[in-house]
C-alpha cells in the first residue's frame, strides 16, 4: 500500500486509533464537544479511509465526564457506577464523530460494548471485521463494557481482536520521553523503543494492563501528538512522527 506520488500513502493496512475524548473537546478544562475539533479529526479520518485504510477508532469520554471526578472523596456515587457513566460519555462522542463523518459521505458504523441498540450496534468482533473489510470506519465506544479498566485497555483489546497492524495512541505530547517534558526542559524523547525497554525504563506509554496486552500480542504502539498538522495521516503513512514501540 505505497504510492511514491503521495507522501501520505498508507504504510499500514488495518489500524486501531485510540482517540481521547479531549481531542473532540474545547480544552482548558471546559466540558463539551467542539464541532470544529470534531470536524478537523473527521476530515483526517475521511482522507485515511479514502486511501483504502481499514480504520477502527476507540474513543474516550474525558471531554464530557471522567469517572474519577465522582469518586474523589465522595461516597454517594460508587466507583463502578462512575465508570459506567464514563462509558456513556464515550457513546455520545461516538455519535458526534459518526454523524460528522457521514456528513462528509464516509460510511461508518458505531459499535458499543454497552448494549444500546437504539443508537449503536452491539460490539461483535466478526461484524466489526466485516465492516472494516467493506471500507467502513468502525467507531468503538463504551470501553470494554466493564468498570475499572481504561479506554487504553479497550484499545489494546480491540486492536488485538481485530488483528490491527498497529495501535495509534493519539495524545497531547509528541512521543515518549524519559521524564515528563512539561516539567523538565532536558527531557529526552525516544524515536523507537522495545516493549522490554519500556518496562526496564518504567516509561508511561499507557496503563500497564493495556501495555502488557499489546506486548503479548506483538501489536506495535505508536504514540504521537494528534494536534500536529495531518498527524493521524502522517502516522498511518509511517512517517517519523512520535515514538514507535515494537517487540
From TrEMBL:
Example of a GO cellular component annotation carried by this entry: cytoplasm
Residue stretches spanning the membrane: none
Major localisation: cytoplasm
Binding residue positions for ATP: 18-21, 62, 66, 171, 177, 180
CDD domains to which the protein is assigned, alphabetical: AAK_UMPK-PyrH-Ec
Domain Aspartate/glutamate/uridylate kinase: 13-225
Subcellular location: Cytoplasm
Alphabetized InterPro entries for the sequence: AceGlu_kinase-like_sf, Asp/Glu/Uridylate_kinase, Uridylate_kinase, Uridylate_kinase_bac
UniProt key word Methyltransferase: no
Superkingdom, taxonomy of origin: Bacteria
Pfam family, one: AA_kinase
Protein residues bound to UMP: 61, 83, 144-151
EC numbers for this chain: 2.7.4.22
Keyword line: ATP-binding, Cytoplasm, Kinase, Nucleotide-binding, Pyrimidine biosynthesis, Transferase
Subunit architecture: Homohexamer.
Entry's family note: Belongs to the UMP kinase family.
Cross-referenced HAMAP family: PyrH_B (MF_01220_B)
Known function: Catalyzes the reversible phosphorylation of UMP to UDP.
The protein's name: Uridylate kinase
Species of provenance: Frigoriglobus tundricola
Gene expressing this chain: pyrH
